[in-house]
Amino acid sequence: MSNKIQNTSLILLIIYLVVGIYLSLNTGISHDEYHEQLNWEINIKAIKNFYETGTYKDLLEYKDRYHGIGFNFLSQPFQYLIKDLLLSYLDVNEYGSILISKHLVIFTLFFISGLFFYKICLIFFNNKNFALISLFLFLLYPYFLGHSLINPKDIPFLSFWIISTFITCKILKKLYKEETVPIKYLVYLSISTSFLISIRVVGFLILLQFLIFIITFCEIKNKSFLNLLKNNIKNLIILFFNLAFFTYLLNPIFWHDPREVVNSLIWMSKYQQDVSTLTLGEYMKALNLPASYYFIWLFFKLPILIILGFFLFPLIEKKLLKNNLNKILIYSLIFTCLIILLLFILLDVAIYNEIRHLMFLIPLIFLISLNNLYMWSRKLFYFSGVLFIIFFVIENISINPYQYTWMNSFSKFYKINKNFEVDYWGISNKNLYNKIVKHSSKNNFNKNNCVYGDLYSNVFLEKQNFKCFKMYSELDAAKLRPYYVMKNHRNLKRSNPKDCKLISSEVYKYSFSDQTINVGSAWYCD
User: Could you list the pLDDT tens digit for every one of the 526 residues in the chain?
Assistant: First the structure.
């Protein structure tokens, strides 16, 4: 790689980081952020009680006690350092500044995970051009970028999965070369995996991925699995001792009884959130999903380039050398994706909001597909890679801040509003509340009257001297007019407010598409 390309790439990465931080601080607040903050506050109170009394009754009685708080251990110090700065910079109240400050930490962690993704690509092929193209496809993929601006659960989980996968690849490379595995790799893997589990207990699946990597290595290298275990028994003890220690430390709910690990796995696999997700025109319930749900959403969420690359595998399989490290890694990643997907289907795991709960598998699919494309034709890889990078940039600009709802061009053959879930986290709230503020200043609205909206109406309107904030669900009981209504999120499916005037609709369009996608509206009821 020439110095010019290297320097240009570094400048572009810096620009990406700066723009991403700006966007993360200037988007709406997602529905789950209230719950994430509440989980942290209940857990931190429980930690204090456990330290003082040896028990934490409130946590044990809390419905979401098994929701991990691992990422909060990293984010909360930064949130409280910058919340006052954001309070003066943004038109939100103090609670809002605490929530939005987490956006910066989420995006920064995602950016760091991209660098680990780059390093994994270098393990596949020691070619910086391949790794850079892959990195920018990863970072600019609208679905990832959109979630990285707001998602306090799935993006940290995805990020630590990538980091753990990188360390696993490094360990496998040492085994492949028959070199000693440094103890620091084992400690790093145990810490990264512990954070993964502390964010979401399904992080235990990374151990399945580790096992798949080892079995695949043994099969392709004609090694004895049992002999490999015997020869590395010391390493395994170090790994699992540290893993158990850090996992226990980062999950307060385990402190009173380690058997809570099993309880948390059972509870979270059937989490009682029986919401429906609009999927190809059909509302599919989280607690009763057909197997087709996963494949429909993967088909419409993955970039067409990645879908094409994945199915190229049978054509490039013969190009993989018999004992090549690349072959071991590719087979391991393919088996990981297929087995985890199969487990979700067979165990009838409750998921909703398209495939965000399986988002951690998509970087693995990227690695498989990009490897296949590169081996099939380097010219095709570079040409299509650059083309899709440009396309992603245009898409991100066109649909900002709704990149997290992004779907590929196949979806354009359908009426998206009628067939798929859009803005299921309700981040249109910020723009719609801004429209209400502008309208109220022009119409001398009495700010003692109410605004009916979501959880965050006070966050965005308190600084503007509004006094009364109610949920949209309370609208039927509204008597005192005039009032404002902010309608988005799942309320979008309900009928419009009666005898009210539409003052603004929040819409967006994909690039190269005339289809208007509606994600919310603001109403004035006098």
Answer: 678 888 999 999 999 999 999 999 999 999 899 999 999 999 999 999 999 998 898 899 898 898 999 999 999 999 999 999 999 999 999 999 999 999 999 999 999 999 999 999 999 998 999 999 999 999 999 999 999 999 999 999 999 999 999 999 999 999 999 999 999 999 999 999 999 999 999 999 999 999 999 999 999 999 999 999 999 999 999 999 999 999 999 999 999 988 888 888 887 766 666 788 999 999 999 888 999 999 999 999 999 999 999 999 999 988 887 668 999 999 999 999 999 999 999 988 888 899 999 999 999 999 999 999 999 999 999 999 999 999 999 999 999 999 999 999 999 999 999 999 999 999 999 999 999 999 999 999 999 999 999 999 999 999 999 999 999 999 989 989 999 999 998 777 788 999 999 999 999 999 999 999 999 999 999 9
Cα–Cα distance between 19 and 75 in angstroms, integer? 20
Buried b (16+ CB within 10 A) or exposed e, 26-43: ebbbbbbbbebbebbebb
Instruction: For residue 323, give the amino acid letter.
Output: N
Q: Say if residues 337 and 361 touch (Cβ distance below 8 Å).
A: yes
Domain boundaries, the chain: 3-410, 429-525
Alpha carbon distance 492, 424 (integer Å)? 10
User: Residue 425's CB: how many other CB atoms inside 10 A?
Assistant: 24
**β strands within 325-457, DSSP E:** 450-453
Instruction: Report residue 522 CA to chain centroid gap.
Output: 28
Residue type for position 200: R
Residue 420 Cα distances to 10, 54, 455, angstroms: 37, 48, 24
Task: Output the CA–CA distances (angstroms, integers) from residue 344 to 198, 265, 287, 473, in the order listed.
Answer: 20, 13, 12, 33
> Distance between CA 466 and CA 446 in Å, rounded?
8
d(CA 436, CA 484): 7
> Alpha carbon 206 to chain centroid distance?
16
pTM recorded for the entire structure: 0.95
Q: Is 85 left (phi over 0), alpha (psi -120 to 50) or beta?
A: alpha
In the numeric block, the tokens 């103090």 are attached to: 94
d(CA 349, CA 389): 34
CA nearest neighbour of 75 among 46, 48, 108? 108
